[in-house]
Write a sequence for this structure.
């Protein structure tokens, strides 16, 4: 999978997405500064969301449309999305700023009109949000554009994932990534289930990753260890500015620390390699080897009393200990001499 200039594969660095979402709080100036801060924080990409309240829902106060049991309780869907949406007339400017900052920029569309709008901006990829994974006609339409498609699985059962993958492949798009996501805001860390990251990749033969709503960097680090190649986190200049997503978004300091931790985790994972580095070879100086621990005269026998396996590691390998016991030495040896085959009568 290639998004813009970034190649995503099993050996690539993690592709780190800063999700702008509603964290502009209605100000394009804040949105622009957030993009610049995301670059400073080490993100590879800034992601937008492209919808309006009218493309997502209807303005109704019927009970079905009232939000319950979340941080947005007390609003109806229309009110939430009216507050949270990113004005479409901002998009071209935000894409321009991202490019100037050296960030990849794409978006999550929420209906066909959003897809058509984003196509005019030549987006390099699309993201399907967790709550849209059951919108098979939308997924099929997005996939038909031939761009890489990233699917969040926050509310998905296995059948939902299979249907979404089938929709992509039906139109010839196999450039798919699946992100493990817990659709709670913020998400409890004990529900992260990072074992799913590896399973998604193996079960469906796709790039896998994480769309994270937990607080802190622990879950992204664990995801990296389980093979995540994409990590997405909500990003905000300052939670004090408020907004619908502020409470579960990372600020610049936190995001920078997360990026550093993820990069360190990548370095720590490394590769399967049983050869030693120069530093590791030097460390063998501290290993055990066979040393003379009492003065021994020429012709005397080696015993457990006058030879021991001790540090440092410049003498014979300890594996020869039993083999050399009872043999005579051919030279005078002093306490502290490293034992060598040359000193032993074979």
């Amino acid at each position: 999978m290639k998004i813009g200039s970034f190649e995503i594969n099993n050996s690539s660095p993690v592709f780190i997405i800063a999700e702008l979402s509603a964290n502009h709080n209605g100000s394009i100036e804040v949105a622009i500064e957030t993009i610049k801060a995301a670059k400073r924080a080490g993100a590879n990409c800034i992601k937008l969301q492209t919808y309006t309240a009218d493309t997502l829902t209807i303005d109704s106060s019927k009970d079905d449309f009232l939000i319950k049991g979340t941080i947005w309780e007390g609003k109806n869907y229309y009110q939430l999305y009216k507050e949270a949406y990113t004005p479409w007339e901002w998009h071209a400017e935000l894409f321009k700023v991202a490019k100037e900052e050296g960030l990849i920029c794409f978006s999550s569309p929420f209906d066909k009109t959003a897809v058509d709008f984003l196509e005019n901006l030549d987006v390099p990829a699309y993201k399907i949000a967790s709550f849209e994974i059951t919108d098979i006609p939308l997924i099929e339409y997005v996939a038909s554009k031939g761009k890489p498609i990233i699917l969040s699985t926050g509310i998905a059962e296995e059948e939902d994932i299979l249907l979404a993958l089938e929709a992509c492949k039906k139109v010839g798009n196999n450039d798919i990534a699946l992100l493990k996501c817990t659709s709670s805001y913020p998400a409890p860390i004990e529900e992260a289930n990072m074992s799913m990251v590896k399973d998604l990749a193996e079960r469906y033969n796709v790039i896998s990753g994480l769309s994270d709503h937990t607080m802190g960097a622990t879950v992204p680090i664990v995801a990296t260890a389980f093979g995540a190649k994409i990590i997405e986190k909500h990003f905000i200049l300052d939670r004090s500015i408020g907004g619908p997503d502020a409470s579960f978004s990372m600020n610049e300091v936190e995001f920078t620390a997360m990026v550093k931790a993820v990069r360190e985790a990548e370095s720590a994972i490394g590769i399967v390699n049983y050869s030693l580095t120069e530093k590791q070879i030097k460390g063998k100086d501290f290993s055990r080897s066979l040393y003379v621990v009492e003065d021994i005269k020429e012709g005397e026998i080696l015993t457990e009393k006058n030879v021991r396996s001790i540090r440092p590691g410049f003498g014979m390998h300890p594996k020869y200990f039993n083999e050399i016991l009872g043999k005579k030495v051919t030279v005078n040896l002093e306490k502290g001499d490293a034992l060598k085959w040359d000193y032993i009568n074979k």
Observations:
- The first helix runs from residue 28 to 40.
- DSSP finds twelve helices and twelve strands in the chain.
- The chain has a mean pLDDT of 94.
